Amino acid sequence: MNSEADLLDLVPELKASGEAYALATVVRTVSATAAKPGAKALIGADGTILSGWIGGGCARSAVSKAAKEAIDDGKARLVSIQPEDLLDDSGLSAGDERDGVLFARNMCPSKGTMDVFVEPVLPKPELIIFGASPVAIALADLGKRFDFSCVVCAPAADQSRFPEADRRIEGFEPVITDRRQRYVVVATQGQGDLAALRASLRFTSEFIAFVGSHLKANSLREQLVAEGIPSARAETLRAPAGLNIGAITPDEIALSILAEIVGLRRTKGRSAAAKSTA
Q: Are 114 and 28 in contact (CB under 8 A)?
């Protein structure tokens, strides 16, 4: 069993690694339960308890399941773990949700009730921008306002154009070390288009778009496939980048791209939430 100090010590490490996790806190107990109000645990994306303690196996499976779902859809939930007779008396079954409370069955001999608040802690999604064009500069500035962690991949001579970037990489070879959500925009606009696209298609991302015409993107896509990039992967490239809002200026184009990314993120979140309640 880890102490609360051990639990808190692990938080900076998880944050630095970019790993999503959930914080589970016991907020109420009725009758005999192993854990008491205030007990906490950090739970990984796979449901593993990383640190802390919230009781025995009777509670762990239900809380771990809730933690995985919370991380998937980004929404906190309150889990009430009750003995079967209490659930029956209330006309409930394990897995039911009522008034924002998710119910689970306590099969332990203690027959106690425990309410646990499960809160997901998700790393900032990364917005990886290739290039130092006016659109790239506008996108890096706007992305920060939408709470993205902005990573700029550009030649060394252009790095000074991005003073507020969270991470700056010289050239077009970003080092990917964690599993956070990533959204990639190639805004090189004629300055290393092929090299940037080649690098961006080599790692997993939620979204990859090219600031350029459909015809130019098709030509570059054909070259990449000829080099050995799998056709299915090359087809994930979106071009031209952004929603069609009639954008003309770099700021307007950046806005259209961020709008497309935000729409994708929120749609995915709603889909995950619907799936978890189906």
A: yes
